[in-house]
Structures are given as C-alpha cells and as structure tokens.
Amino acid sequence: MNQxxxxxxxxxxxxxxxxxxxxxxxxxxxxxxxxxxxxPYEDFDWKVYHSQHFKIYYYENEANLLPTxxxxxxxxxxxxxxxxxxxxxxxxxxxxxxxHEEFELTNIFPGFIPRAVGAFAEPFQSRMVLxxxxxxEKNYSLITHELTHIFQYDMFYNNRISAIVxxxxxxxxxxxxxxxxxxxxxxxxxxxxxxxxxxSNFASLGNFNSLSFIAYRVGHAxxxxxxxxxxxxGVRNFLWQYRKNITGNVPAAIERAFEMPVEDFDRQFxxxxxxxxVTLLPIKEExxxxxxxxxxxxxxxxxxxxxxxxxxxxxxxxxxRNELDLVLISTKDGRIFKNxxxxxxxxxxxxxxxxFGGINDLAWSPDGNELVFSARKxxxxxxxxxxxxxxxxxxxxxxxxxxxxxxxxxxxxGGTLYFVGNVNGYYDVFSYNRANQQLLNLxxxxxxxxxxxxxxxxxxxxxxxxxxxxxxxxxxxxxxGQKTQLTSGLGNDNQASYSADMTSxxxxxDRFDDIYxxxxxxxxxxxxKQYTNILTGxxxxxxxxxxxxxxxxxxxxxxxxAYYQGRYRVYRMDKPEEREEVYDVAKDxxxxxxxxxxxxxxxxxxxxxVKYRLRNNFSISNVNVNVGATDDGRFISNSAISFSxxxxxxxxxxxxxxxxxxxNYYINYLNRTKRFQWGANFQSLQQFFVDSFSFRTSTGxxxxxxxxxxxxxxxxxxxxxxLFSRVDFGAGMTDQDVFRFIPNPTYDPNSAEPxxxxxYTNVDFIDPYAYVNYSYDTLRYQPWxxxxxxxxxxxxSTVFNQYETYSxxxxxxxxxxxxxxxxxxxxxxxxxxxxxEFFALGGNNNLRGDYGFQxxxxxxxxxxxxxxxxxxxxxLQFPGFAFANIxxxxxxxxxxxxxxxFDFEWAFQDTEIxxxxxxxxxxxxxxPDLRFLLGSYGVEISMNLIGLEVHWTWAKRTNFDEFPSSxxxxxxxxxxx
Length: 977
Description:
Blueprint: E1 7-9, E2 46-50, E3 54-59, H1 66-84, E4 92-97, H2 100-103, E5 119-122, E6 127-131, H3 136-157, H4 161-167, H5 171-182, H6 187-199, H7 213-244, H8 250-258, H9 262-278, E7 292-293, E8 303-307, E9 313-320, E10 323-330, E11 336-339, E12 350-351, E13 363-364, E14 370-377, E15 380-387, E16 392-397, E17 403-410, E18 416-423, E19 426-433, E20 439-441, E21 449-454, E22 460-467, E23 470-477, E24 483-485, E25 493-498, E26 504-509, E27 517-522, E28 528-530, E29 537-548, E30 553-564, E31 567-573, E32 581-582, E33 609-610, E34 618-629, E35 635-645, E36 650-659, E37 662-671, E38 677-691, E39 696-697, E40 700-701, E41 704-720, E42 725-743, E43 758-777, E44 780-782, E45 785-799, E46 803-815, E47 821-833, E48 839-841, E49 856-858, E50 860-878, E51 881-898, E52 934-945, E53 948-958, E54 968-973
Parallel strand pairs: 3-4, 4-6
Antiparallel strand pairs: 1-5, 2-3, 2-33, 5-6, 7-31, 8-9, 9-10, 10-11, 12-14, 13-14, 14-15, 15-16, 17-18, 18-19, 19-20, 21-22, 22-23, 23-24, 25-26, 26-27, 27-28, 28-32, 29-30, 30-31, 34-35, 35-36, 36-37, 37-38, 38-41, 39-40, 41-42, 42-43, 43-45, 44-45, 45-46, 46-47, 47-50, 48-49, 50-51, 51-52, ...
Helix pairs in contact: 1-3, 3-5, 5-7, 7-8
C-alpha cells in the first residue's frame, strides 16, 4: 500500500510510524495461501453511538469509557476544524478498544499490528482505530492526531484513493502536520529531535520522506517554524497551495506559499532548528563528560539494562542481527557474556521493549539465578522467567482477564512477582504467587501505574503513578497496602529505584528544561540532588556498591542509560558524590505542560445509541493492482477490490487475474468474527500449459499451448490452532473442461513418420469436490522478502469420480547475516484418477535456466531449489527516483514434471546413450528427456523498481555431469519464493 493508505501512530514506543507498502507482484490469488493466523481471541459484542461528528464503535466491557471518548472526540473535532478552517460532511467512524492488546486484534487491518503502533487511520472508509488506555492527555492527542489524517484525506484528496496514491506526500508533511495539529509531542519525542539536530546536518526536508520517527519530529518542527515565521495564516496558506496542486507537489506548494525557492526555505529551517538549541549547548553536557560508557560490543543500541545482584553484570535487550535478544553484559568492559535467547524462537512472538516510553522491562531474582521479562504471544503479553545459568525459559505465565503484563520484579524470596497489568483500561500494580498462582491487584485505582521496584528489605514497592498529567513516585507498604507519594512538582518522575541502604531513591525526571536527567531524593530530609545535566536524556538509574580495595572502603557507582547520537548507551558514574548538586524546586519550569481543552461538554443521549447492523456498515475497504511479466514475455495482471464491514469482520474480495489473453475471476467471502472462521467462494479459471508430448518432429519437440478451464463454487471452514498453524476444509461443485493424457490409439512405433505414443483428449465434467489442507508458517520478513523461518503446506483434494491429489510445499530460510540468507524450497504434487490434475513447471521462479514459462506439464511435479541471497546495493539514487534493495543470488534448481504412464527416473539424464534403453539418447540441453530430472544453476540480480520486483537471471542448464559454457539470460517480474 502507498503511504497514504494507512496512518500509524507510534505511541508506544516512539519508534516511528510504520506503513504498509502497496505490494505489487505477479502472483495469482490463492484461496488457501500460506501465512500466519490472525486469531480473534476475544468475542467483541459491538455497539454504536452516534455523536454530532462521529459514529463511535464500542463493546460492552468498555462501555464505562464511552462518555469520555465521545466528549474527547468532539473536543478534538472542534480543535482540528478550527485550526484547519475545514468541516467534514460525514460522520467519522471511530473504533476504540480499552487496551492495546485488544486493539491489536482488530480485523480492520488484516495484518499484524506491531507493538510500536499506537493507532491508525485509513481512507477507504475514513476510519480511526485506537486503544484508550493511556493518560487522558495522551488519549486526547492520539484522537486528535488520527482525526487530522481524516481531515487530510478529505481536504487534500476528497477521499479519493487514486489521488492519495498519486500524490505520495512525504512523511514529514503528512505526519508532521498531524503531530503539529494535535500538539502531541512529549519530552521523549523532543529528546530525539534535539539529538538529531545537534548530531546531524539537515540538508533538506526532502530527505525525510521515509517512514522514520525522525521524519515525524522534523515535520512537526517544520510546521512550528512556519507558524512562528508566518503565523497560523501562513500555515493555512501553505496547505491551501498544496491542496490546489493536483499532483500533490509539496516543494511547489512551499515555493508558492512563501515566495522563495525550496533551497532557501530549507536553509531558514536549518537556522531555526539550530537556534532552538544553541542556547542550551554551553550549559549542557554530553553523557561521557562525567561518566564512562560501558560500550556494548556487537550491539547497535542497549535497551532496558538491569544490574545483577552482584553488580558484575547487567542484563539488557539488544538487537542482534534482525531480532531482539536478552543478553548478559559485563559492567567492566561491555563484553556480551551470554545470549540467553540466542537465535530465532517460536516460543514467543517478540520481546516487549518500553525504553522509548520510559518503561522498565527486566528484573533479576535476588539470588541472581533468574531473569523475568515480558513478551508477546498469541494475542497477549506473558511473563517469561529465564534460568540464567542454563539460558533456558523456566516458566511461562499467562494471565486470563488481564492485559499487557509488563515490568515484572521478584519478591525477596523469588516466590512472588510484582508487575503492571491492565484491567478494564486501567494500569495497576499486581502481585502473582508462583506457587499457588494467586493474582492480586495491589494498587486498584483509576490512575496509570508503571515500573514497580522492590525495596532492598523486600517490604515496599516503589512505583510511578500518573497524577494531574505527571508521573510521580509512590511507595506502597506490602503489609498494610498504604500508599505514600514521594515526589512532587512539575515534571514526570520515572524509573525509580532504591539506594542500597534505603535512605534515598534515584529516578529520572524531565522537571528541569524539559529534559530527562538523573535525580536523587533523600527520604529523611526530602532534599533532591541532580547528577546529570545532559542535553539529550538520561534514564534507569541504579546504584552499585563496590569495595575499593585500594582505599579499603565501600564506594558507590551510578549505572544509567543515556540517549546519545541516535541510540541508547549504558554509562557508569564512578564517583557520583562529586557530581551531586542540590536541586532547587524553583527550577521546575515545565514549559510544555499541555493545557488541552479536552471536553466539549457532551452528555450521552439514549436515542443516539444504535444497534450495529452489517448491511448499514459495508463498503469498499481496499483496492489493489498488481502487474508482472513472465520470462517468455507474457504480461500478467491482477486487480482486486475488497469490501468489508466497518469492523473488518466480514470481507468480500473480488479479483481478476489475467495472463496474456486468459481471464480469471475470483470471488471470496470470509467471516472472521470468531476463531472458527468460515466462508464461500467462486472462481472461474482459465489457464494453459505447453504440450510437449503430442507434437514431436524430427527436429525435436514442438510447442503447442493447450487451454483449459475450471469453474468452482463452494464453501470452506478454517480453524487456526495457533499463530503458526491451521487447518482448512472445503467442499463444493466444479465444472471443468480439461484434458486427459492417454495412449495414442494410432501409435505405430514402426511408422516412418514420428508419431506420439501419448496424446491429450478433451474431457468435460461436473462433479463435487472436497479438500483438506494443513498450513504451518513461522516466516520472518525483511523489506526484500522472507529472511528466516519455515513454511509448510500439506493438502489432499479430490473431485469425486475424477481424481485425488496430494500436495506438499516446504520452504525454509536461514539467516546468515542481517541481510544475507540461504533459501530452500521443495514442492511435490501427485494426482491419480481417470482425469488427474496437471501441474506445470518452468520459467520465472519455478525452474530457471531459460526453460519456458509452464513449458513442462504432468500429473506429477517435483521441484527443489536452493539459493544464496545477499545484498549488492541498498539504494541507488537518481534525480527524482531511486533503485532500492538491489540484491544478488546464486542458485541451483532441480525439477521435473511427468505422467504416471512414464517410468520416470529420479536421476539426471546421462551424457552417453544407455545401451539397455532403446529410447535412450544423450543429454541435450536444448532438448532434454522429460523422463529425467532437469537442472540449472546460475546467478540472479533482483531489485525493487516503482514497487515491482524485477529480476535478471543468467542460468546454465546442466545434468551435473556436463556444464555448458553458454549461459541463458531471462528477465521476469514477480515475487521470488
């Protein structure tokens, strides 16, 4: 999909908005295609409430949140409408969930929503989809941000998808404008912009077209710059100039609106950014001015570090290759001592990381033998306990009725876990007894709690809780349940931890200059001390007490993380007492306190509740156009249009697929409301194969294309066992006009003219069919395609009275480096009966080596391929366009297609004649014997060109005895296996 199709809001953590790109390939649609399963773990009973400008969809378990959502939404509409001087002439569908985990279950987006994505808006039905489980201010800004996108679709493109795709507006413009209107930046967002502004050279806004978080921040800053320089009318004039341009040219709108070349605008904007931070540079420090970085070797960034009880190691989450791993790192030299989650795993989907949201992710057991972390699996967060010595997961804990379990810590004896979870939209601190599995809500209030930490004596829990827009540090006595607020003032106080002697706490706060730094609070005197004063941000303070043998005394160290030069780093401050400075609360100057007018004074009315009816909520939900080309020059196209209800639970797909002049039509309905899914489908298929048997001349095989058709009408059911596996059953009626392969009744081996021993005869029948198929898929993807994992499809199908077919498709990919891999595929098809199915082989990605597209056919087919894939050029930039992901491959293909009537040899054709076989002839790469395996090897260059996968192949045919020197070149467009 193009950038404009979906707008994602990355609110947890702020990693940058993710978009689905328009996938252009040359693949015919397949009803039972492989893929992971998106399972509706919850059965939502949806209802609708109509306010003045919204149709709000909710379910009974979150009905208590509806009044707030309605009131906030109408207030957000008022804000956006006034800012943009625009009104919508339709009611906006707003679908909200009470937790992020439930939001991830939405079927409106058919794929898997990453944890980093906080909300999205889409233009097909102008829908907003979001969770409602944050602080009120963040919930309000989230609604406002996504509503701005709905206004954009209407203002700029009149809600026409073709206009959105054609415009392809840059990320900094679309997302920066939404962030600017919503005023949704917090101090973690600004930290990233500050770091980039002082570390990078902003040559041009045109460099921020990709889907990166910094593009959002720069875009927001650009709109702030326009308003400061030209006023709100200058912003509106800029938007008006963009709106007038039918091509959606942002640079042209800049030149017309501000009457200056884009280069001058970029220069003024760069100057504006520098001026924002130049006054802070002389009075702020870099993190290594007074601390030493514990540079983690082999890791780009170090997330969520947690000191071991001994202080000699810290656990952290680091990206190794293409996934996050939990590792142990030496506090002495930064060496990765042990990788506890080494390699890819299907035990869970992904480790949860909250570093960009100020959330703790890891904790040690008091004896140092276990670590606990949170990971995503099968629709919920689960807690995992790792045996540190063995590097194995010892315990997996799932909580029924509780969402988003995170930030767990052990009790003093290790028998209880304290963690944060979400019940009814509110985050509270819970305790879980590992022995009797008893779960208790400890804080049980309407405030958002986070980051529990146990006191050294095991009697208290330290945590942060949101109060009046700020997170403050609280302590709870575990014996009495009494809560005590420890910090106050204008700022967010997060990630607190006790000192070893429990006389003070350390925490990270943005109370001064709106920048997160490290502070200490003396619990007896109430005096606050500041330890860092850096320009970017410092987090996760932890005290380490060591014995100084030289001085003969104990001394303390502070371990903390800092965001610096685009990544999180771990630092050790050896003598914090030399850095401590008493902090005067008068310095609290939280200049960016949001004073949102979050209420429109709306009260719900009984007559505005509406029952959800499918027929009133069904319209177009997606449009897709695919094109491709075979290596023998045939044009392939696939056009699809999808319809769905507002909630995405009922989907009707209509598509046409053509190859040359052959047209194919598919209609499929799927009901995915519940885990047990069902549907119905109709297909009218026209295809061809190359007849290499019926016509043979003295000069070799002749090519004759034979066409056949298959019309089907039926239904199916689908049951996913897990994220990775499922089974499908289907049945119906089929009308087929196909061919049967039979012995030639006129065949005379003694004839002077060559004559085929077998021929094709036409067969037409109408019979019932049925099938069962099992799928397993653990594939992981990168922008260039599958990168690691395994996929398997095994199926049996039958058309009664005609044939039975058995099929296997196995694929596996093994990562070698972050961008290189080995790919392997094996396909086998076997059909028996009076009129067996035919399977084609050859061309494109199914036996390379200049074998023609679908050149070989049979009732049996075998293909195996192995390929080494590696990067060549990441990006080749030209004025106005670029070639992306130029990659190379070295491959070996082996396959064959034959009929049961043949004595197929599972070997390669000999170079010499077999004297014991009258039909034997020497291997000829131009005319291979189809009773033997066919082979090829070669190299391939692939790249992405305007959304298409294009491939250039140089291959040699071989019987692995002879290796001809001449190579064959072919070009094709489509997706690799």
